[in-house]
Design a protein that fits this description.
306 residues; 12 helices; 51% helix
Length: 306
């Protein structure tokens, strides 16, 4: 079973990087069960979904999806879409933040160009009193991501990032970013053994360590996990150490573990849903299938129910 899971993960991760299939997916529309985990292709469809989630007691963060951004024109377009998303959130009054990927904003083209695009987004976010979370991508882009974050934090306190627990240096990064709102996750990319743990038990152990460290530092902590065992341990730790519920939240992906999301809301915990949208959904969807073999069955059920 373990060998099958590794094959499945590698297979779907390789598909996520296929540019030809990505182009084709834009023509197909939200097929292959993707509509269950992607909130439409437009800002209007996303706002409708977020509003529905808000009505269920769920907060949101939205991500305008984008893959293979290789030109400044594409990066400027993505920047424009992020700004339009912030404007739509403000106009509609939904309770929602914005998540961004720096590669979509030109990180692979030029760091300074990417930073300028982020500054444009941050100006609008500050105007509307909203928060922007910079998603962490693969390890090769971590240093540049943290450098851009540091530059932004000189002028804006409404921006944070994500730390991935499977990286050896995750604990050091959490200590360095003490006091900053962070989303802490296990990690979604396929990283080499030279930089990341490969064993689930070791990843889980480090994940709990960095969550506890950030909480004990008095920092706002978003726990991005669908793992009920981890969630139960975080709740137990918070209760034992007198950490108020206002200092942390749980985050899950749109379309996954909706039963657990509702349960946490019913128990009085802050629950935020990560809501992706946009025409460029293919790469995101393939990575979700790669994360857990169960997700393949989930997607197929959605496809067959259409």
């Amino acid at each position: 079973m373990m060998a099958l899971e590794k094959i499945s993960r590698s297979f779907f991760l390789s598909l996520s990087k296929n540019k030809v299939l990505n182009i084709g997916a834009k023509k197909w529309g939200l097929g292959l069960g993707a509509s269950q985990v992607v909130a439409g292709t437009t800002i209007e469809s996303m706002i409708k979904t977020v509003s529905q989630l808000n009505n269920e007691g769920l907060l949101c963060t939205v991500d305008h999806l984008g893959e293979f951004v290789l030109s400044k024109e594409e990066a400027r377009y993505a920047t424009k879409k992020c700004i339009e998303t912030l404007e739509a959130i403000a106009t509609s009054g939904v309770n929602c933040q914005l998540s961004v990927k720096l590669t979509q904003l030109g990180l692979d083209i030029d760091d300074q160009f990417c930073l300028e695009n982020m500054k444009e987004i941050m100006k609008v976010a500050k105007k509307f009193h909203n928060f922007v979370q910079i998603d962490m991508e693969d390890y090769s882009r971590k240093k540049a991501t943290l450098e851009i974050l540091a530059a932004l934090r000189e002028s804006y306190d409404n921006v944070g990032t994500v730390i991935q627990a499977y990286l050896y240096d995750a604990e050091d990064d959490v200590e360095m970013l003490k006091g900053m709102p962070l989303r802490l996750v296990k990690g979604a990319y396929k990283e080499q053994e030279v930089v990341a743990f490969q064993d689930k038990a070791r990843i889980d152990n480090q994940y709990l360590r960095i969550i506890k460290k950030h909480l004990m530092n008095g920092s706002y902590t978003a726990i991005g996990s669908h793992d009920h065992v981890i969630i139960d341990k975080v709740i137990e730790f918070a209760n034992q150490n007198g950490i108020p519920r206002t200092q942390f939240e749980f985050q899950m992906l749109y379309g996954f573990r909706t039963d657990l999301q509702k349960d946490l809301v019913d128990k009085g915990y802050t629950m935020r849903v990560y809501v992706p949208f946009g025409e460029d959904w293919y790469g995101y969807f393939m990575r979700r299938l790669a994360e857990r073999p169960q997700n393949v069955t989930f997607a197929l059920k959605g496809l067959l129910s259409k």
